[in-house]
Design goal:
This protein is 45% helix and 19% strand. The chain is an alpha/beta fold. It starts with a strand and ends with a helix. The chain binds adenosine-5'-diphosphate.
Length: 163
């Protein structure tokens, strides 16, 4: 049985992430999306909000589960009995960091391998950071994130403007 983990910040989940989730889910029995609870970063969405948004946008994919985690990814993978880590590769700029992470995690875990899915052309430029930046300036993000995410982002930035 192939049980894979797709880890990330997902702050927020974009159409690029969702594309990787759908393609990865087709190629494994169970896909666990690991939402990183990184205490040193200050995300726009809390970890609970990010989990909830991911649940909402993946509800039609039966073999996907969403969990949050802190600490080392390899420990989380072990706890979840996962044998594969999934990552998306957008451009050459992702490559160096991803290569280092994949090699380190393989050594730390005694053999959990990372598999890369190459970003689809239409999403290869897309990042959560860019989506947040556009929304913060009042731009439309409808082409970049699922509708439920866009609505929550607009709501969040509107409430910042009021306060
Ligand atoms: P980011 O903040 O860069 O969007 P995350 O930490 O949430 O990233 O990303 C989790 C994983 O999803 C990483 O492997 C990242 O390379 C991948 N990813 C992010 N955006 C895309 C995209 N548009 N297409 C394919 N993979 C992506």
């Amino acid at each position: 049985m192939v049980r894979a983990i797709y880890p990330g910040s997902f702050d927020p989940v974009t159409l690029g992430h969702l594309d990787i989730i759908r393609r990865a889910a087709k190629n494994c029995d169970e896909l666990i999306i690991g939402v990183l609870n990184n205490k040193t970063k200050s995300p726009l969405f809390s970890v609970d909000e990010r989990v909830e948004l991911l649940q909402s946008v993946t509800e039609d994919i039966p073999n996907v589960q969403i969990r949050s985690f802190g600490g080392l990814l390899v420990d989380f993978a072990k706890e979840q009995n996962a044998n594969i880590i999934i990552r998306g590769l957008r451009a050459i700029t992702d490559f160096e960091y991803e290569l280092q992470m994949a090699q380190t995690n393989r050594i730390l875990s005694n053999g959990v391998d990372t598999m890369f899915l190459v970003a689809s052309n239409e999403y290869s430029y897309l990042s959560s950071t860019m989506v947040k930046e556009i929304a913060s300036f009042g731009g439309s993000i409808d082409k970049f994130a699922p509708k439920v995410v866009c609505d929550r982002m607009y709501e969040k930035y509107r409430s910042y403007m009021r306060s």
